[in-house]
Amino acid sequence: MSLDKNSPFVPAPAGGPAVARPREATMGDRIDAIIRGLLVDGEFAPGEKLSLRRLSDMLGVSIMPVRGAIARLQSDGALEVSPSKAVRVPLMSIKEFRQITLIRAEIEGFAAEKAADNCIKANLYEIAEMEARMQILCHSWPFRTAAAVQANRELHFAIYRAAGLQPLVDIIERLWLRIGPVLFHRDGHPSVGPEAKLNYRDVVKALFERNGSAARAAIVEEIRRTADLVTEVPELAAGRLRPEPTAPEATVQPPRAGREAGSPATSGAAPTAP
């Protein structure tokens, strides 16, 4: 079967049926991926306003692909656009943060469990090398926050991709888009720093042993530990999370003039027989 080079299909090996031609990444795709990475790695603070012009200058592109990327990120809940067209990183409440942490524990724990079942040997050694690099970065001096945060993300997603379930990876990426600015904003957060009590060796060990339940437990513990570092340190929570509104206290209205407390209402009441 012969196909034109511009055809959306390519012939399969051994003369089989034609299959869809992989779509080449566009400029918009690349800009979208870069901004997503910046959000996930905490380059922008919760509540921070983003300038399209500043982003386009930083990325060395026109404003059009940036605007398209912003629209896609808005649909994923990673950015907010006000009626006046101002763009900002959403400011998450403590309640929302805890809800997303609970969902992450379930979904990412499941991904780690499936990775233990499905991971091929080449991926196992790649994950082990990433974990070793993560340990070096987190215990080196001077500590490089940006490099450690990026290594943390790459290690997590190498584990999740090893599950062999791409739709699952897509779901996890959307959760990280929401949680990244809260967990990893560059203000000295210790979740991936020298003070961190890392649990990734337990994950890698479980993957090599094909122990799905242990892999799930190790990832869930790591997710909860990093979340607790935000919620249990007041200065971090105050700078990254919106406090829950407090319910107004109930007030007791005094009786109206001319009516004694406890007496029946007379306004509009039918007269009683003598």
Automatic annotation (TrEMBL):
User: Which residue ranges are recorded for the region named Disordered?
Assistant: 1-21, 236-274
GO MF, any single term: DNA-binding transcription factor activity
Kindly give the Pfam families that the UniProt entry links to this protein.
Answer: FCD, GntR
Q: Which InterPro entries does this chain map to?
A: GntR_C, TF_FadR/GntR_C, Tscrpt_reg_HTH_GntR, WH-like_DNA-bd_sf, WH_DNA-bd_sf
Q: Which UniProt keywords apply?
A: DNA-binding, Transcription, Transcription regulation
Concerning SUPFAM superfamilies, the annotation shows:
GntR ligand-binding domain-like, Winged helix' DNA-binding domain
Instruction: Give the matching PROSITE patterns.
Output: HTH_GNTR
Per UniProt, residues of the HTH gntR-type domain are 25-92
Comp. bias regions, Low complexity: 261-274
Task: List the PANTHER family hit by this protein, alphabetically.
Answer: HTH-TYPE TRANSCRIPTIONAL REGULATOR MCBR (PTHR43537:SF39), TRANSCRIPTIONAL REGULATOR, GNTR FAMILY (PTHR43537)
Q: What name is this protein filed under?
A: GntR family transcriptional regulator
What is the organism of origin for this protein? Paracoccus yeei
